[in-house]
Design goal:
Blueprint (H helix, E strand, L loop, with lengths): L10 H25 L2 H8 L3 H7 L3 H21 L7 H18 L1 H12 L6 H24 L8 H17 L1 H7 L6 H17 L8
Helix pairs in contact: 1-2, 1-4, 1-6, 4-7, 5-8, 5-10, 6-8
Length: about 210
């Protein structure tokens, strides 16, 4: 092996890191960063605390690792807005993707929300270097679509905030949603249809312009 080359982790090491991160995701999403402990993560992973510390320096490193992995996934639906696509279907597909993430990645959503509520102390560099330029780019795109008459004009920034708020509610407040909805099995489909209708009525232009 060349000097300085990193040794490839064994299958056991890879498996244990994955177990720790999955356990930590469960613990952080349930208790938040401040309420989570290494003992809880170790118990959830079925490993000893010293074993956890063999792979990670501590709770903060585990949390940052999870957040770093999450950011790419979290931004993918926004990246997917196609400048050459049909504007209203593009926005509605973005809404559908965000509903799907709330359904399929509820723990990740709560992890992200918890970090933001605390003031984003560990993820702020990602927000500034990754999210902000993408947000500005896509809001400018939506603004151009509105200026061209393809969408009813609203503030693109607050439109995106509204999509985030309404879709992620179903993950971040799942306990409340579960209490208030009698048929939780139908909740995902109902939520998607409702939000698609809501944003269609908000954005559909009175006099659509041809592209």
């Amino acid at each position: 092996m060349p000097d300085g080359a990193a040794k490839k982790p064994s299958r056991i090491q890879t498996r244990n890191r994955r177990r720790i991160l999955d356990a930590a995701l469960e613990v952080f999403s349930r208790h938040g960063y401040r309420g989570a402990t290494l003992d809880q993560i170790a118990a959830e992973a079925g490993l000893s605390k010293p074993n956890i510390l063999y792979y990670f320096d501590g709770k903060e490193e585990i949390h940052v690792t999870l957040l770093n992995r999450l950011m790419d996934t979290w931004l993918d639906p926004l990246r997917a807005l196609d400048p050459d696509g049909d504007p209203l279907p593009e926005i509605l597909e973005y809404v559908r993707r965000k509903v799907g993430m709330a359904r399929d990645l509820p723990r990740e959503s709560r992890l992200f929300a918890g970090e933001i509520i605390q003031g984003a102390p560990r993820i702020r560099p990602h927000l500034e270097a990754g999210l902000r330029p993408l947000f500005d780019e896509k809001c400018a795109l939506i603004g151009r679509w509105m200026d061209a008459g393809h969408l009813r004009p609203v503030d693109p920034r607050h439109l995106v905030f509204s999509i985030w708020a309404t879709t992620q509610h179903y993950a971040d407040f799942s306990a409340q949603v579960g209490v208030l909805l009698a048929d939780t099995d139908a909740a995902d489909a109902d939520a998607e249809q409702y939000l698609v209708t809501l944003f269609t009525r908000l954005l559909e232009p009175a006099n659509p312009q041809s592209r």
